[in-house]
Amino acid sequence: MKTAIYPGSFDPPTMGHLDIIRRASKVSDKVIVAILNNPHKKNPMFSIEDRKKMLDLITKGLENVEIDHFEGLLVEYAVKKQAQIIIKGLRAISDFENEFQMALTNRKLTPEVETVFMMTNDKYSYLSSSVVKEILYFGGCIDQLVPEEVNEFISEKIKQGEIILA
Ligand code: PNS
Q: Cβ(105) to ligand 1 under 6 A?
């Protein structure tokens, strides 16, 4: 059984993330979408719990996908989950340098875990969680950029005053 980990911040999950999750679920037996509780990113817009809720909503129909979160080194988490594969999405050449460095470092740390890159769907090559947050800060519309369930979840949070837009 091949288990793949798709790690990220998912703050919030975008159409690009969902595209990679769907495609990863077709080429592996099980996909664990792993939210990093990242101490380096000081001001997340959404709590880990809310990110998990959004990911649960958008992956409801995908039987072999589960959502989890982790802290610390990705490869240690992968070994703990008995995963053989780390899935990364590549959007543009600008992603490559950083991802290349991380993949080689991860391989040095744990050679038995293989990093597999998936090219983004060209429709989403410009898209990132940071772009979505920027649009939200300025009151713009994100309905083309995030799955419908995420858009509804965020709209409700804004209505309830539960996310602070600077
Ligand atoms: O969505 P992001 O923030 O671009 O995801 C980055 C992530 C979580 C994949 C990356 O920061 C990561 O793997 N962090 C865990 C710490 C680690 O293992 N670093 C790699 C050693 S270079």
A: yes
